[in-house]
Amino acid sequence: MPVGEVHRRMVDILPRLRRFIGSLTNGAELSDDLVQETCLRALAHLDQWQPGSRLDSWMFRIARNLWIDQRRAERFRGEPVELEVVAHLLSCDGELLAENRIILEQLKRDIAALSAEQRNVIQFVWFHGLSYKETGRILNLPPGTVMSRMARVRGALQKFI
Q: Taking the CA of residue 15 as centre, how many other CA atoms within 13 Å lie in the half-sphere pointing to its CB?
């Protein structure tokens, strides 16, 4: 496939890539940086993409790996807090906020207790709305394995569903 055609396909993928990355980062500034880094990495390593395979899946994997690397690096720097979030918290009902925090923390603990494979699957299926087949392509898994992992996730998180 000519390089120009690959570049055109990459541009066509950008809206989906931005949505995917936006759901990973929960922040527009971080999202834009990760989209840019993903595109730069994909262009720099275009020789590693196999023509005939899905370019979008390949780029999603690049983005996911970059995000994981960034998250690992953040462990040493701490978590940034946006001022808008703090201002919003000050105007909320304290009791409701406390209850929601408890539920959210329990959900976070339960998700963290899942295997890495299960967390990857719910990220693509629940948070990004991808099909089992699309998720399988991105994670290099058969759709049946994705389905099985989702069944175990549903069982583990039943109290929240």
A: 1
Q: Compute the C-alpha angle 132/71/50, nearest 5°.
A: 50
Inside any domain, residue 6 = yes
Burial level of 38, CB count in 10 A (0-12/13-18/19+)? buried
Domain that holds residue 138: 114-161
The full length of the chain comes to 161
Task: Give the pLDDT of residue 93.
Answer: 67
Q: Report if residue 67 sits inside a domain.
A: yes
Could you tell me if 56 and 127 lie in one domain?
A: no
Tell me, yes or no, whether 2 and 70 share the same domain: yes
Whether the full predicted model's pTM is greater than 0.85, yes or no, is: no
Q: Give the residue among 129, 107, 123, 121 at the shortest CA–CA distance from 150.
A: 121
Q: How many domains does the chain have?
A: 2
DSSP designation for 123: I
Strand partners, 53: 51
Interval 23-46: pLDDT, tens: 777 766 778 888 999 989 998 988
